[in-house]
Amino acid sequence: MSALLLRLAGPLAAFGTSAAFHDRDTAPHPTRSALIGMFANCAGREPHHALDPFTDLPGRPRYQDLGFLIRIDRPGTPHTDLHTVGGGHPRDKQLRTSGGPQRPQTQSTLVSHRHYLADPVFTVAVTGPTPLLQTIASHLRHPRNAPYLGRRTCVPTEPLVLATAIPDPMNELTRRTPLSLARPPRPHTTTVNVDFIHEDPPPDPTTAIDHYELCDQPVDFTPGRRRYHPRTVWRTRIPLPTALYAGPNPLTTLADYMHPEQP
Q1: Is 116 left (phi over 0), alpha (psi -120 to 50) or beta?
Q2: Distance from the CA of 99 to the CA of which of 21, 113, 176, 232 falls in 20 to 30 A?
Q3: CA distance 130 to 81
C-alpha cells in the first residue's frame, strides 16, 4: 500500500449527499462517491461500468478498495445558486408531476436551489494498491474526460496531482505538504489548527471533535439505479506547523514541493 496525494481546489465545489428534486445539497468536504466518480470519469468509464474491477491490473483492484484521508486546508464559503427548470419550453416539453401528467402552466417553472462551497481547498491522500494508484494518477494527468469537483460545472485548478508513492500519508500531510489557508497564521504563532476527515477512528482519540454518517459509498452509478451505502467518518482537529503555510499565492511553494530536485 502507498498513497497518492491530490489537491482539490477551485472557484466552486459541490459534493452532494442527499440531492433530490429541486434542492441539491453539498457535504462540507469531498465524499467517496465524488472522488470515485471523478476517477471513473477521467478514466473514460461509462457509469454502468464505473465500479467494475480493473482486470488488466494485478489482483483485479476496484475503486472501492481505495481509502481516503482528507485535510481541510480551506473549507470554502457556503453559496446557494438559484436555477429555474422547465421555463420557456413548448407545452409538450414542460415539467410533469410525479404521476406523469404535465404540471399546470402556472406551475411549469420550478426554482432549483443548488448549494456550493466557494473557493475551497482540500488535500486528499488516496491509499490503495500501488498499480491502481498509478493508473488513477495517469488518468488524472491525461484525462479522457475533464475532472470536476462533485458537479461538472466545478472545474478544479492546477495542480491536481501533488505526489505519488507516499509511504506515510498522515506524516506527509502533517509535516511536509504545503498548507493553503484562508488567511495567514497569526503573528508569533507556531501552530495552526486544521481539520482532517478519517474513514476509521483516529489513532489519537484526543484529537477527535465529531463523527457522523454519510451515505456516499457508491454501489452503482448507473442513471436511474444509483445506489449508495452509508458509512461513518471522523473529524479531528490537529495543530500543524505554521511553516507549512504556502502563502497567499501558493503555486511557487507547491511547485517546489512537487519538484524538490529542481534548482
Answers
A1: beta
A2: 113
A3: 40
168: Cα within 13 Å, side-chain hemisphere: 5
Closest by CA to 162, choosing from 206, 196, 125, is: 125
Residue type, 87: G
8 Å CB contact between 52 and 40: no
Match 482539490 to its residue by C-alpha cell: 8
Angle made by CA atoms 138, 139, 145, in degrees to the nearest 5: 155
Do residues 113 and 46 touch, judged by C-beta distance below 8 A? no
Which pLDDT score, from 0 to 100, does residue 128 have? 95
Backbone phi, then psi, for 87, in 5-degree steps? -75, 150
Stated length of the chain = 263
Q: Tell me the whole-structure pTM to 2 decimals.
A: 0.90
Q: Which residues are registered as beta bridge partners of 84? A: 111
Residues of the chain with pLDDT under 70: 1, 19-21, 98, 262-263
The b/e string for 59-96 (b: 16+ C-beta within 10 A; e otherwise) is eebbbeebebbbbbbbebeeeeeeeeebeeeeeeebee
